[in-house]
Amino acid sequence: MLADINIICLLESTTRAIGKDGGLLVSFKEDMRRFKSLTLNSIVVMGSTTFYKDLKGKPLSNRLNVVLTSKLEVDNLDNNLVLLNMCPLKVIEFLQNTYSDKSIFIIGGESVYKQFIDIATSLYITEFTDPSLIGDRFFPVIDKNIWLCVNCEESNNLLFKKFNRIK
Questions:
Q1: What is the signed CA dihedral for 78, 115, 157, 24, rounded to 10 degrees?
Q2: In 74-128, where does DSSP find H-type helix?
Q3: What share of the chain is helix, strand, coil (3-state, %, to 5)?
Q4: Residue 36, SS3?
Q5: How far apart, in whole angstroms, are the C-alpha atoms of residue 161 and residue 13?
Q6: Is the peptide bond before 109 cis (omega within 30 degrees of 0)?
Q7: Regarding the domain with residue range 5-165, which homologous superfamily does it belong to in the CATH classification?
Q8: 8-51, pLDDT tens digit by residue?
Q9: What pLDDT, on a 0 to 100 scale, did the predictor assign at position 76?
């Protein structure tokens, strides 16, 4: 059985935009605090653009950072960073077998979300509304036949939602 796979994302609610020009579309301190509290001491899985552009090539502290890349097979650069070139199921199997005590969070970007959404068990979505922000990277459609919103909280014009897979 596969581990729980959580996706976490900040998106514009009207367009589902998440990024522009290889970086985040926007950032909110409250969302960053939520992101940190949810992902602390867990595994964060991301694409190489997210790692090199958004994080400037620096692993997030107190988390195992897994970067999906086409360049390497498996390379453990230090205790906090692993580079992998595997399909999503193989990534999860590897992480589950190697780090079975840690939660897994998929943190982006667009292509990584698309690869993992079909095997994810939970979505942690922060929504904001500002359709004037034009993105070029988008989150997949959240199909209401597959996902059930089990929690929704509003704070400072942000909606913090949790969805669980029902199919």
A1: 50
A2: 88-98, 110-116
A3: 20, 40, 40
A4: helix
A5: 12
A6: yes
A7: Dihydrofolate Reductase, subunit A (3.40.430.10)
A8: 999 999 999 999 998 899 999 999 999 999 999 999 999 988 99
A9: 53
